[in-house]
Design goal:
mainly alpha, globular
Length: 156
């Protein structure tokens, strides 16, 4: 079994309950969005900001995750880039329009989404996969995206 197939299968074992699956469809993207936003909010050196406002800790972490994703599946990695671009654009909008600082909004989203995740696993009756292996924190988004690819009839 290919590494990606094995990882998706193992992740799926603790995500069988329809309620838990629905919770993951909502909370995994919210956790990604809020984590990127929290990292985006950490100041970077002025010299880096002058190069591009898009260069920040959030984009650095996305780039590092992309290296991992490319090793598993170039096609899914490309899909994740599109997801991240959409999230980065949304973060820029939120940062410019919100009454609270971006980090505060993202911290609230992050906390609530994790509460949702743990509630979903309580309903499932199984522990979250990342408690067994931290790489499953990166597999969760791919697990969702692989369903989108299958629905569209795309290989991954």
């Amino acid at each position: 079994m290919a590494p990606l197939t094995a990882l998706l299968s193992e992740y799926g074992e603790s995500h069988q309950n329809p309620t838990n699956k629905l919770v993951h469809w909502v909370c995994v993207p919210l956790i990604m969005f809020s984590l990127i936003g929290l990292l985006w909010s950490v100041p970077v050196p002025a010299a880096i900001q002058r190069i591009s406002p898009w260069l920040n800790w959030g984009t650095l972490v996305m780039t590092l995750a992309l290296v991992y994703y490319v090793r598993l599946s170039g096609r899914l990695a490309l899909g994740m880039v599109l997801v991240w671009v959409a999230m980065a654009l949304a973060l820029r909008v939120v940062a410019g329009a919100a009454a609270l600082p971006l980090w505060a909004i993202c911290l609230i989203i992050f906390a609530l989404a994790w509460v949702g995740q743990f509630w979903g696993h309580k309903v499932e009756g199984k522990k979250p996969s990342f408690l067994k292996d931290l790489q499953f924190l990166l597999i969760g988004p791919l697990w969702l995206l692989h369903f989108v690819y299958r629905r569209l009839g795309w290989g991954y």
